[in-house]
Amino acid sequence: MMISGVVVTETVFNIPGLGRLVVDAVLSRDYPLIQAIILLTAGTYVLINLIIDLSYAVTDPRIRYQ
After folding, report:
1. Using one digit for the tens of pLDDT, what is the confidence trace for 26-53?
2. Domain boundaries, the chain
3. Which one, 2, 28, 38, 65, has least CB within 10 Å?
4. Of all helices (H) and strands (E), which one includes residue 53?
């Protein structure tokens, strides 16, 4: 969903970026590039969620990980 949102936004506003790169890679069947973009997006998503979950213990004293 995140990648498709980026593709739509970049297409509407004509901004070159990862969305355009994904579309070009799919059209040219560049599978290693598609895999790298998906891996990068998923890794970033997991890392941000991990940071947010760990910050809950710091900001909210009612939550403590044991």
Report:
1. 899 999 999 998 899 899 999 999 999 8
2. 31-61
3. 65
4. helix 31-59
The whole-angstrom separation of Cα 32 and Cα 50 is 27
52 membership: H or E segment, kind and range = helix 31-59
Angle (CA) 30 36 38, round 5°:
100
Output b/e per residue, 12-47; b: 16+ Cβ within 10 A. Answer: eeeeeeebebbeebeeeeeeeebeebeeeeeeeeee
Query: How far is Cα 47 from Cα 66, in angstroms, rounded to an integer?
Result: 21
- Rounded to whole angstroms, the Cα distance separating 41 from 1 reads 11
pLDDT score, position 61: 75
Alpha-carbon distance values, 14 to 6, 23, 28 (Å)? 11, 13, 20
